[in-house]
Design goal:
4 helices; single chain; six-stranded antiparallel barrel; Thrombin, subunit H; alpha+beta
């Protein structure tokens, strides 16, 4: 208390000065319409500026939250589409009174952000911010907003390395949409927007602009995920086949977020592949 009193006494002249300044301003603005108008205009301008800055900051934070929610909803919708396709495939040709199963729960999706990415090398990779602590395992498929982008290669606790589709050593099982004809997708290097589908039977009819999707003949990707569109035909080494040139759906130079695809049947299917003799049992 003594310290406070000493402080007030020491600076009493400043307190008196400040009091008279405030009193003068109050009297000036209250009794003079012009000064009052100037004060109100200035105060309104300052408050408007502060509100604008605050609003921008709030909007930015809200935008990030909205973007995350949209990505989560997009992943959920894609999961539902895959589930419906699986159920539709299951029920085709089955009697109407046949009971359902758990086929719809086969695939799950894990959202991830891309930490870094390369597109200029023959063998490209990128890293994501999810690892084995998040359920990520080597061999899982990875898709962007527009289609297939790679396969999980190595996992850490909270990060993983992905083999990009833009890797000359990587191959994907694909097909022309709405047809049973399967081919092998390969990237030849150089152009990050173009890839090739090899081993398409020569008799197969196709159209420019026709969609190429995953075949579903592996535990890496479900059937029907977009890969690209046909833009041309290339002569193959084997006269019984031809090669399609396709425009990739994914923009690898602007890859910021992806979805890792988890196939819940993969452990069972991998276990079955261990047996060369179908009569063998665990």
């Amino acid at each position: 208390m003594r310290t406070l009193l000493n402080f007030i006494i020491r600076y009493s002249s400043w307190f008196v000065y400040a009091f008279y300044i405030v009193l003068s301003c109050v009297l000036l603005f209250n009794n003079n319409p012009y000064q009052q108008s100037v004060y109100l205009t200035s105060a309104n301008s300052i408050s408007t500026s502060i509100y604008g800055v605050t609003s921008d900051i709030t909007s930015y934070i809200a935008l990030r939250k909205t973007n995350e929610e949209l990505q989560a909803n997009n992943a959920l919708l894609e999961k539902r589409v895959v589930s419906l396709e699986q159920e539709l495939k299951k029920y085709k040709g089955i009697a109407a009174d046949t009971s359902g199963s758990n086929a719809g729960a086969r695939y799950e999706y894990v959202l991830a952000s891309v930490l870094n990415n390369s597109t200029r090398h023959p063998r490209n990779y990128f890293n994501i911010d999810k690892g084995y602590e998040d359920g990520i395992r080597p061999g899982m498929g990875v898709a962007g907003h527009n289609g297939v982008v790679g396969i999980v290669n190595v996992t850490g606790a909270h990060t993983s390395r992905i083999i990009s589709l833009l890797n000359v050593t990587q191959h994907f099982s694909v097909k022309l949409k709405d047809t049973p004809y399967v081919g092998t997708l390969t990237w030849k290097g150089n152009d990050p927007t173009v890839a090739y589908v090899e081993e398409i039977p020569k008799h197969v009819k196709f159209k420019i602009g026709e969609s190429v999707v995953t075949s579903g003949y592996s535990t890496t990707f479900p059937e029907g995920i977009d890969v690209g569109k046909v833009i041309g035909q290339v002569k193959a080494a084997d006269d019984n086949y031809f090669t399609l040139k396709i425009k990739l759906s994914s923009d690898f130079r602007n890859l910021t977020s992806v979805r890792v695809i988890k196939d819940n049947l993969k452990p069972q299917l991998d276990n079955l592949e261990k047996y060369d003799n179908p009569d063998e049992r665990p």
